[in-house]
Write a structure and sequence with these properties.
With about 350 residues, the chain is α/β, with parallel strands linked by helices. Helices cover about 35% and strands about 15% of the residues. The protein has a 7-stranded mixed beta sheet with strand order 2-8-7-6-5-3-4, with helices on both faces. Strands 1-11-12-10-9 form a 5-stranded mixed beta sheet, covered by helices on one side.
Length: about 350
């Protein structure tokens, strides 16, 4: 009964994740999961870790995983924070690093990851949405104003557009009094991580996930990279919330995924190649497609309503993401699938159109 709720619960509007259908004969292109399974080495590591040790609590600081990540990105383990998916990491970031009403509102794009305003509502953070440019790009010059923090995805979601490191560094040079968070969930599909700037800018935090390019959405492993000072703040939040965010199997899977770098590179390249093919074929069908560097594309057909297209594709057993949101309500966000899935999508669109 809602009468038992705390007052703040009544006004919360939770995040709505993409649909997860419970039937098997669906072509699922709506939640940006990797179409290729995890490395065989990951499956092996999970199997080997599934033993009597599961009766024990996992290491609260996941030291071995932090060291593995640090070696991969060229930082120290003290500059790495891990959590139960990047959404949990972001929750701690919002609560611990981005709530500064004395400095100004938190700034993020008006079309972006829809969890951002949910976190603001949850933690009582004032925020201001900065409109994307007419071409849907993020203009970081517009963020050079009073703020209690800045966050944006790179590539942005759901547009897929990428900012270059020069633009990010220019912002960092001019915004030194608050934390700048670069949310890099899709960076491995064509971008360059901002982690290379961390040792130059103490207020830079980079958040990444293993759900996309490393095919571990079902394992829930996310991490943040930044200065030791920022990591200490995040650890204070984590250890006041959940001292054991990652279990034995998650840690084993994540370490194995990082160690099998060739598998990661091969599957990421397959996604990139298929993305280019899908874009070419969508454009041949009359779609306008934004230049994505993610594992999805945002596409608009000038003669067919996006919601209608989504419904017609569903009738054919294909699910894509439709956002009933101003400026993008005539676009579909389409996850890049396998070659067979993408061909089925294109064939189905040809029939519908």
């Amino acid at each position: 009964m809602s009468s038992y709720w705390s007052d703040f619960v009544k006004d919360l509007e939770p995040y709505s994740p993409g649909e997860q259908p419970q039937i098997s004969n669906i072509t699922k292109l709506n939640t940006n999961e990797n179409p290729y399974g995890p490395s065989p080495e990951v499956i092996k590591a999970i199997s080997e870790a599934a033993d009597d040790r599961l009766r024990l609590y996992p290491p609260p600081e996941a030291e071995q995983l932090k060291s593995t990540i640090a070696d991969y990105v060229g930082l120290s383990a003290s500059q790495v924070f891990v959590g139960n998916g990047s959404d949990e990491v972001l929750a701690h970031v919002f609560n611990g690093l981005l709530n500064h009403p004395d400095k100004g509102p938190l700034l993020f794009p008006d079309i972006s990851y829809s969890f951002y305003p949910v976190f603001c509502q949850l933690y009582g953070i004032s925020y201001k949405k900065i409109p994307l440019a007419d071409d849907f790009s993020i203009d970081l010059d517009q963020y050079q104003q009073e703020n209690g923090g800045i966050i944006f995805p790179n590539p942005n979601a759901p547009t897929g557009l990428l900012l270059n490191l020069d633009a990010i560094e220019s912002l960092l040079k001019n915004n030194t009094d608050s934390v700048v968070v670069v949310d890099e969930a899709y960076i491995d599909f064509g971008g360059q991580t901002a982690a290379s700037l961390i040792n130059q800018y103490d207020n830079l935090l980079v958040v990444q996930t293993m759900s996309k390019s490393r095919s571990l959405a079902g394992m829930r492993v996310g991490y943040a990279l930044g200065s030791k000072h920022l990591m200490e703040g995040l650890n204070r939040i984590k250890n006041s919330f959940n001292s054991y965010p990652l279990g034995h199997l998650q840690i084993a899977a994540a370490i194995a995924a990082f160690k099998d770098e060739q598998y990661f590179k091969n599957t990421a390249q397959q996604v990139i190649s298929e993305r280019e093919r899908v874009v070419d074929q969508l454009e041949s069908l009359g779609f306008d497609v934004l230049p994505s560097k993610a594992n999805f594309v945002l596409a608009h057909h000038p003669q067919k309503a996006a919601e209608t297209l989504a419904d017609c594709l569903r009738d054919k057993g294909i699910i894509v993401r439709y956002f009933a949101q101003p400026r993008i309500d005539q676009f579909l966000r389409i996850t890049i699938g396998t070659e067979a899935q993408n061909s089925l999508l294109i064939d189905s669109l040809e029939q519908i159109l």
